[in-house]
Design a protein that fits this description.
Elements (H helix, E strand, L loop, with lengths): L2 H5 L12 E6 L2 E6 L63 E2 L2 E2 L59 E3 L14 E3 L12 H5 L7 E3 L2 E3 L8 H7 L11 E5 L6 E5 H11 L9 E6 L2 E6 L4 E4 L10 E4 L4 E5 L13 E10 L2 E8 L15 E2 L13 E2 L8 E9 L12 E4 L14 E3 L3 E2 L5 E5 L8 E8 L11 E4 L2 E5 L4 E8 L3 E6 L6 E4 L6 E4 L4 E8 L1
Parallel strand pairs: 5-6, 18-19
Antiparallel strand pairs: 1-2, 3-4, 7-8, 9-10, 11-12, 12-15, 13-14, 16-17, 16-20, 17-19, 20-21, 22-32, 23-32, 24-29, 25-26, 25-32, 27-28, 28-29, 30-31
């Protein structure tokens, strides 16, 4: 059947495996069902042609579609080298060599941006973790290696620390992290920039021998500085000494007050006289116990005999204001006793007029009254202190002998004596007292003697001084006379009486003649004491 005859046949609109097609078999035209052409189907659209000059084999899976170019083209083979002309767009490809470069199969991805060139003259191995990005310079550059010495040209910025296991010979000018040299090899030609180049203080201060150092100021190490410092002859309680703490191993300090307490606690009390000072100024009296004293005070519990040791690390003083007399009398000698009191561990001073007759044997507790300013401290037997204290132990530490022209105006020179903290037991012959001059004896006569003690005397004594010897007595002998009635006659009295007040001794002689009767010094018989041969002397004590 000729081609023209086939072309004149009507066109089939569809095909099925049982459809017949003409074939040329050995020069004979025969028919064959379409199913005999194979398991697949070949469809050629109307007006299209399929020309095969060599064997053409298509294999695949049912439903697989092969799309050919829309224009004339050469198809590529996969079992031999192939040359591509023009721009090719590939999806994922697996290759072993490109232009002589060998690629090893892997699951990684290599992306080369359009218009860029990737040239490798030697082996390059890139390893890392998924998501890791290596950013290369934006201009031509030489990469640095890490396994051998390297030279850097230009300014380098290191944002993290640099640890150098070997010598650094370059100049590092920026960086905020610490620069650590882990080798004993010296670092040369090294300068640090960034914060380190301009910093004026350490970020975190450090201590050197216990002294904080942040780089802003010079510091002084304690030992040589202590030796070179100016000597202070009179330390005060707040002064401090460096001391090595044997428990913590650290350098600590101890105050002079604590040091004095420790020394005096561990050392036995001494009987040395304490350093007492007294001075007048602006008509006031100031008494001072100087630093360094140590005193044992009795307990505030009278049934307890355990003493409390107290130290005086710095001077302590008390002021008796101008106008306060302490019970003294103008132009009459007085003795002001200075006592130290234990105010719950703190030593304070108090004063009292010795003539007040107070118990000063240190076995009791005393209560003091606040000095109170001008005219506020005038009672002879009251302990005065700067602040009133109740039931406190005391020690006698000194005394001031004073004769002031005007009581309460402290201006005349004082005699000061430290006592060493020994108790004073008051005796009548030690108390300030009044002694009259020799008085003429006149029967029934009276005497008014100003004693100047400032209070009613607690003890008055009369004595007869022999002027001309009689009745076994010799001139100059003193006969203590009894106050009151010495003898009572029918109409006359003998002896002398005294009615004292805060100012005077008011005396009256007996009306007998003579005024006194007594005993013969040799025989003991009653005799008359001739008025003219005797003088009366009167003594009084507070």
């Amino acid at each position: 059947m000729s081609d023209s005859t086939i072309s004149q046949l009507p066109a089939a609109l569809s095909l099925s495996p049982v459809d017949l097609i003409p074939i040329d078999q050995g020069g004979v035209t025969k028919r064959a069902p379409l199913s005999m052409l194979g398991n697949g189907s070949v469809f050629i659209q109307s007006g299209k042609s399929l020309t095969v000059n060599s064997t053409l084999i298509f294999t695949g899976t049912d439903g697989t579609t092969m799309t050919f170019p829309a224009t004339d083209a050469f198809l590529a083979r996969t079992d031999a080298g192939q040359t591509f002309t023009g721009t090719q767009v590939f999806g994922a490809i697996t290759v072993t060599t490109i232009n002589g470069a060998t690629f090893t199969s892997s699951t990684g991805t290599f992306t080369l941006a359009n218009g860029k060139i990737f040239t490798v003259n030697n082996t390059i191995t890139l390893t890392g973790t998924d998501g890791t990005t290596i950013t290369l310079p934006t201009t031509s550059a030489t990469m640095a290696r890490t396994d051998a010495a390297q030279s850097f040209t230009g300014l380098q910025t290191f944002t993290n620390g640099i640890t150098t296991p070997d010598q650094v010979t370059s100049t590092i000018v920026t960086g905020t992290a610490p620069f650590v040299v882990a080798s004993t090899t010296p670092v040369t030609n090294l300068s640090i920039g960034g914060d380190a180049a301009t910093a004026t203080a350490l970020l975190n201060a450090r201590t050197i021998d216990g002294v904080s150092f942040d780089g802003t100021v010079n510091i002084t190490v304690v030992a040589p500085a202590t030796h070179a410092a100016t000597n202070k002859t009179t330390p005060v309680a707040a002064d401090e000494f460096p001391i090595y703490d044997s428990v913590s191993g650290l350098l600590n300090h101890v105050t002079f007050a604590n040091l004095a307490t420790a020394v005096t606690t561990s050392a036995p009390p001494t009987s040395a006289i304490f350093h007492i000072e007294a001075a007048t100024g602006s008509s006031a009296l100031t008494v001072t116990l100087k630093a360094g004293a140590s005193l044992d005070f009795r307990s505030t519990t009278l049934t307890t005999g355990v003493p409390n040791t107290r130290s005086v690390p710095s001077d302590i003083s008390m002021v008796v204001s101008s106008g306060s007399t302490l019970g003294t009398v103008s132009a009459v000698q007085s003795e002001i006793i200075i006592v130290a009191i234990d105010n719950a561990g703190t030593v304070e001073l108090a004063v009292v007029n010795y003539s007040g007759g107070n118990n000063l044997n240190e076995t009791t507790l005393i209560t003091t009254t606040a000095e109170g300013g001008a005219g506020g401290a005038d009672t002879v037997n009251v302990f005065y202190s700067t602040t009133a204290r109740t039931n406190v132990p005391f020690r006698v530490v000194g005394s001031v002998i004073s004769t002031q022209t005007t009581a309460g105006t402290w201006a005349q020179t004082l005699a000061v004596q430290g006592s060493g903290g020994n108790a004073l037991i008051l005796q009548p012959n030690l108390r300030p007292h009044f002694t009259s001059s020799q008085q003429t004896i006149t029967s029934a006569g009276s005497l008014t003697l100003a004693h100047g003690l400032g209070a009613i005397p607690s003890l008055v004594q009369a004595s007869l001084i022999c002027g001309t010897g009689e009745n076994g007595y010799t001139a100059g002998q003193e006969l203590v006379a009894c106050l009151g009635l010495d003898d009572i006659g029918a109409a006359a009295g003998y002896g002398v009486i005294c009615v004292p007040d805060a100012t005077n001794l008011n005396m009256r002689y007996g009306s007998g003649t003579p005024a006194f009767r007594g005993m013969n010094y040799t025989t003991g018989v009653i005799v008359a004491m001739t008025n003219a041969n005797w003088k009366l002397v009167v003594k009084a004590w507070l």
